[in-house]
Design a protein that fits this description.
The protein folds into 2 domains: 8-67, no CATH class; 74-179, AhpD-like (Up-down Bundle). Helix content is 64%, strand content 0%. The protein is built from 8 helices and no strands. The chain has helices at 13-29, 46-51, 53-67, 74-88, 91-103, 108-115, 125-138, 145-179. Helix 4 runs parallel beside helix 7 and helix 4 packs across helix 8. The two termini are 20 Å apart.
């Protein structure tokens, strides 16, 4: 890990404001994986964002925005996130969203295949399309028209746009995790 964890007692006022907002959202939305140490220290991508709160706060706002008013089904979102995390080999992202995907009903073998960078056979048509859109966006060049048209037909105009933004946001998260070499929490650590 390239950035030390910031203890709650060492936060600046600007960091504390951001940390309070993060903890509030984590308390209602991120229960499936460890994101807060027992002493209240934020881990995962949250710690790097606290180190640079004038940027991290904007990233956090973007993450909250991509989750608000979503039209994409929860399982489709998790296919996108796991496919993106696998592309970047972002260990914490894969750890966290494997747990979320399981809670959303994706089969363990599907999660394992996605985390390994594969296209699982057991995906629904919508999930397979989401995987294909994500893979195409993570490849060099523009998203092919035929794939974008299929996404629009399956998810509507808002859903297709949301899907593109979701890949971008989770690419940003994955790069943050990899850039600061954020580790997966220790086995057996309590979820928070």
């Amino acid at each position: 890990m390239r950035l030390p964890l910031i203890s709650p007692r060492d936060l600046t006022p600007e960091q504390e404001t951001l940390a309070q907002d993060m903890r509030a959202v984590i308390g209602t939305s991120f229960q499936e994986f460890v994101s807060i140490d027992p002493d209240g220290t934020l881990v995962g991508p949250f710690n790097p964002w606290l180190h640079l709160p004038h940027v991290g706060g904007k990233v956090w706002d973007l993450i909250k925005a991509i989750g608000a008013g979503t039209v994409l089904p929860a399982r489709v979102r998790e296919v996108v996130i796991l496919t993106t995390g696998a592309h970047f080999r972002a260990a914490y992202e894969l750890y966290a969203h494997a747990a979320v995907a399981e809670a959303r009903g994706l089969a363990p073998e599907t999660i394992a295949a996605l985390a390994a960078g594969q296209r699982p056979a057991g995906l629904t048509a919508e999930e397979a399309l989401a995987h294909d859109v994500t893979a195409a966006l993570l490849a060099p060049g523009p998203l092919p028209d035929v794939i974008y048209a299929a996404a629009r037909a399956a998810f509507g105009a808002q859903g297709a746009q949301e899907l593109v933004h979701l890949v971008g946001v989770y690419a940003l998260i994955s790069v943050t995790l990899n850039g600061f070499d954020v580790p997966v929490p220790a086995a057996g650590q309590d979820r928070r």
